[in-house]
Amino acid sequence: MFPFLFGFFLIVMQSLDVAPPFELCLPFAFSAIAAFVVWVAIWRREVHWSLRVALQTSGSFLLLVGLPIAAQAVFLVQGNDLIDTLVMCLPILGWGLWMPWTIRIWPMKPEALAVDPMGPRCMKCAYSLRGLRATRCPECGDEPTLDELWVGALSP
Question: pLDDT tens-digit profile of 3-20?
């Protein structure tokens, strides 16, 4: 996710013609919004969404990513190189804290957490294929592809 964010940030920074000190604030804001949308899209099916979860997610996003972007607009006017460098790193730190935080606060659906302790199973006879070096079932002789085993493992 971080390479995507960095690349998107650079594209937006090059395409916007914004005067200092806002030259970094807007690209960080746009890339943060893109990160939010992509991150929620990736996890939308696994999370049990409620109003409380949506508000916590949005609030933590504004706190961890929005405040550093706002701090840039305030502190980049100072002209101190050390402060400027620290302030420019804050949004990246915000992204780095926000993404693991969301995984911590998001309640997962039970089916997203379900793991078959027996590993992959034959799709014909349900024989456990755990530990085998080939996909051929020793019980019935069926030989599914790895893709078929993967889809079978993901379907309930």
Answer: 777 788 778 878 877 666
Contact (CB, 8 A) for 102 and 39: yes
Sign of CA dihedral 30, 34, 64, 1: negative
Whether the full predicted model's pTM is greater than 0.70, yes or no, is no
Residues 6+ apart with CB under 8 A from 134: 143
User: H or E element: which one contains 34?
Assistant: helix 25-43
Taking residue 75's Cβ as centre, other Cβ atoms within 10 Å add up to 18
The size of the chain, in residues, is 156
What does the alpha-carbon distance between residue 11 and residue 15 come to, in Å, rounded to a whole number?
Answer: 6
User: Does residue 72 contact residue 125 with C-beta atoms inside 8 Å?
Assistant: no
